[in-house]
Amino acid sequence: MKQIFLSVAVVLFCASCLPDGENMIKWATISTGEHYSCGITTEKELYCWGDNYLGKLGDGTESDRNIPTKTSKYKWEKITTGGYHSCGIKEGDNALFCWGWNSYGQLGIGLTSEKLIPTKTADGLWLKIEAGLHHTCGIKKSDDRLYCWGANWYGQLADGTEENKAELTEVGQDTWIEVNAGYNHTCGIKKLDNKLYCWGNNDFGQLGDGTAGETTNKTIPAMIGDETWSQVSAGKNHTCGIRKDNRLYCWGGNGTGQLGDGTKTTYDEHGHVVEDNDRHLPTAVGNETWLLVTAWENYTCGIKSDNKLYCWGYNGYGQLGDGTTENRKIPTKIGDDLWLDAMVGMWHSCGIKATDKKVYCWGYNRYGQLGDGTTVNKSIPTPVADPL
Known about the structure:
CATH topology: Methylamine Dehydrogenase, Chain H
Structural class: mainly beta
Number of helices: 0
Shape: globular
Order of helices and strands: EEEEEEEEEEEEEEEEEEEEEEEEEEEEE
CATH superfamily: Regulator of chromosome condensation 1/beta-lactamase-inhibitor protein II
Radius of gyration: 21 Å
Number of domains: 1
Largest sheet: 13 strands, antiparallel
Strand content: over 45%
């Protein structure tokens, strides 16, 4: 219990006695992964919650947590959550740390042993870091060069091979402003011309170069059209991005309507395609303008220019947040609140509301990844509990 000393008197601090909102932690950023979530507060403190298999919460244990749990004593600038590993950029020296599962070298420490606490990956100053399912990519702050490491079965490290790498591997000699790691593919935006490039797995056309199928995987970056882009988000078998004119485009697999163009690919009882509505090139999602897009496990969410939140695609666990479990083929508005940030994970989503800077989560909750102190699924945005 916090104590405040006034002269010789001792006044016990009563959080519940404060006016509403004054005792509430405020959040700066949120990241969702495979059944877990992490967030950084406005005080630069890092908390994680949910599934803790092989230590991906970074608290030194493998115990699941259903409320936010502090990860370390450090202050943090960035956090990224993948399949079973996490990485972050520390405040002050911009050093890169990773933790969790490491069988494919996704922690980038030159070994394949797991780490239950944040472990320094490499020297240097880092600008961006992105964790995929079993691989990681980051951009150095010192020279804007892109590096990738970890699983490379489909060429998602962009080094021209399909060999896993436990050490940081530079992607060419270009400079980059954006990178996003999906399940088994990666996309990035070059600094020189703001052009979009993608590489890795392309079974469903998620690279966006007009091709699809296992023989069309790319082991080096492939330029996607000639337009300029400001943001990209790589999911499992689809990708979405925002162009410089703030228009939203999606492409790749569309089995649950995750591309948001009003269609979906349908299959018969044997899994054969009946109506193919996958898209192998970037396809416009309406005519509105957008601030943010996030894609992962067969669904997508985004924030429009009016700061309203929309979601679409697979909704089996209520991860779209519209109060139902029905899939949606077009962007569906989630209430009337204004949002600062949002991210989708494996069947659950989280976001930060503009009104109170509090994290809300919804969807699948078996491992406590919604952070509300329960393991019950929620189909509408539900406030995350304050840490103990």
